[in-house]
C-alpha cells in the first residue's frame, strides 16, 4: 500500500503533470489513428515497387517544384502539398487504386494523405524515408 502512495505522489506532482498529459495525448492520438484507419500506411521501397508494378499504383509526388525538378520517380504525378486541397480532383480516377505519396519530410505527406482520405481515397500509402529512401536504394530517378 505504501509503494502505491509513493507512486501516486510522484505521478501527480505538478512538475510531472505536463509529462503525464503529453503521454496521454500521444497515446490517444496513436490509438485514434489505429482505430479510425484513416491514416496512410507507411511502406518501404520494396512494397512501393510491388504496388507500382502489380497494382498499377499512382505515384504522387507532393514536394515543391524545385525538388521535383531535381529528380522524381518515373511516371509520377506532381501536385505540391500546398496545392493538394485545391487539386485533389485531378486524381479522382485513382480513388480505388493504391496511391504512393512521395515527399521529403513526413509533414507534407501526412497533410496530402489526410486531404485524400477526406475526399474518399482509401488506399493511400506514404513512402518511408521519401525520395531519399528511393535514392539510397538506387532506384530509377528521372529529370525532365
From TrEMBL:
KW Cell membrane (keyword) present: no
Gene3D superfamilies to which the protein is assigned, alphabetical: Rhodanese-like domain (3.40.250.10)
All copies of domain Rhodanese, residue ranges: 53-143
Assigned keywords, A-Z: Membrane, Transferase, Transmembrane, Transmembrane helix
SMART domains membership: RHOD
This protein's record includes keyword tRNA processing: no
Transmembrane annotation, as ranges: 16-35
Domain of life where this protein originates: Bacteria
An example Gene Ontology molecular-function term: transferase activity
Annotated signal sequence range: none
InterPro entries: GlpE_sulfurtransferase, Rhodanese-like_dom, Rhodanese-like_dom_sf
UniProt cross-references to PANTHER family, sorted A to Z: FAD-DEPENDENT OXIDOREDUCTASE, RHODANESE-RELATED SULFURTRANSFERASES
Name the record gives this protein: Rhodanese-related sulfurtransferase
Organism: Nitrosomonas cryotolerans ATCC 49181
Lineage: Bacteria, Pseudomonadati, Pseudomonadota, Betaproteobacteria, Nitrosomonadales
